[in-house]
Amino acid sequence: IAGITQAPTSQILAAGRRMTLRCTQDMRHNAMYWYRQDLGLGLRLIHYSNTAGTTGKGEVPDGYSVSRANTDDFPLTLASAVPSQTSVYFCARFWRQETQYFGPGTRLLVL
Amino acid sequence: SQQGEEDPQALSIQEGENATMNCSYKTSINNLQWYRQNSGRGLVHLILIRSNEREKHSGRLRVTLDTSKKSSSLLITASRAADTASYFCATDAYYKLSFGAGTTVTVRA
Question: I want to staple A103 with a disulfide (CB 3.0 to 4.6 A). Which of A6, A27, A38, B104 is the partner?
């Protein structure tokens, strides 16, 4: 199965700094998603994009922004990081039927 | 807020035994999906059951869905050490998934 790449794998970031998490797919699927995973809370949807040029808010969008300039790339930006954004971030794309295929994740620590 | 809740939070079983975990959800769904996550890696899709289905099988996996009770169960038969992972249910409403907090399964050799 062709995949999703996420970068960086992990990052330590000072509070107040700007950070962009990168996500790239190689299957040219329309729908892409960003989740955060915190211990004991499962995954929560941050933002999604159904097609290039459109984005939507998920369950926890505050403090995050996304863009979808083309089909393959879906970056997530933290404009001014705060410690509560310490988490593991997963990018996903639509896979088959209504399921999703996940990237390997980015581990972010905000100090 | 999260749609699904898994029960139990953690489960420890002997290799060869069956593992059962449950998922309850709150609102109407199009389908319910189960995913596995190994050691903090990305989630991997296991099985999908639609709202008009009651039971589905895939290899050693058996999923049931009771829409009247808003609940689902995942049964892993003849467990193996490689089944050690966290398992998440996810409910689908209009192509957006809502995940529960997961059940951590440990299979002892």
Answer: A6
Query: Tens digits of per-residue pLDDT, B71-87?
Result: 999 999 999 999 999 99
DSSP state of B9: S
Distance CA A86, CA A36 (A): 9
What phi-psi label fits residue A21: left (phi over 0), alpha (psi between -120 and 50 degrees) or beta? beta
Helix (H, G, I), strand (E, B) or coil at B46: strand
Whose tokens are 């159904």? That residue is A50
pLDDT tens track for B10-33: 999 999 999 999 999 998 888 999
Flag whether pLDDT at B99 surpasses 80: yes
pLDDT in tens, A7-18: 999 999 999 999
Q: Shortest CA distance to B4 belongs to which of A86, A41, A61?
A: A41
Strand (E) positions, B1-109?
5-7, 10-14, 19-24, 31-37, 44-50, 55-58, 61-66, 71-76, 85-93, 96-99, 103-108
Mutate to test the interface with A, among B31, B37, B97, B103 (most CBs of A within 10 A): B97
Decide if A45 touches B, using CB distance below 8 A: yes
Q: How far is CA A104 from CA A107, A110, B37, B39, B100, in A?
A: 10, 20, 10, 11, 19
